[in-house]
Amino acid sequence: VQLQASGGGLVQAGDSLRLSCAASGRNFDNYAIGWFRQAPGREREFVADISWSGGSTYYVDSVKGRFTISRDNAVNTVTLQMNSLQPEDTAVYYCAASLVRFIAPNSRVEAWGQGTQVTVSS
After folding, report:
1. Are 31 and 88 in contact (CB under 8 A)?
2. CA–CA separation, 94 and 44 (whole Å)
3. Any idea what DSSP says for residue 8?
4. Tens-place pLDDT, residues 52-102
């Protein structure tokens, strides 16, 4: 599977953005899809993931209640709706695919999308 992330931009604190991760290749619905982010000078961190069916999601505490991950397997797309954005959300956001959930101890990234920059001004 190949992934392409899009939708980043420059917004003000409190605004919203919607990121998309479009997949090409076979068997998209075999993969859990996750979103990661990397702020300047920091390591890449896991943000959220969604199961292959879309029936289960997981969020790290820092985004819980503000971000929503969803998927449409009919069009091979995963969306990350980000509301109430804060300056600390500023980062390059990446989507990734795994054959098991990213929260599983044996998770392994099978593919990365290119990053999309999200910048939140105060």
Report:
1. no
2. 9
3. -
4. 999 999 999 999 999 999 999 999 999 999 999 999 999 999 999 999 999
Q: CA 76 to CA 78: how far, in whole Å? A: 7
Please state, in angstroms and rounded to a whole number, the distance separating the CA atoms of residues 81 and 42. 23
Q: Which residue has the tokens 């990446």?
A: 94
Give the residue among 40, 14, 38 at the shortest CA–CA distance from 121: 14
Query: For residue 14, how many C-alpha atoms fall within 13 Å in the half-sphere facing its CB?
Result: 1
- In this prediction, residue 25 carries a pLDDT of 85
Q: Residue 76 in contact with residue 22, Cβ under 8 Å?
A: yes
- Distance CA(97)–CA(49), nearest Å, equals 9
Q: Is the dihedral of CA 83, 122, 62, 52 positive or negative?
A: positive
Task: Look at residues 107, 108, 118 and name the one whose alpha carbon lies nearest to residue 20.
Answer: 118
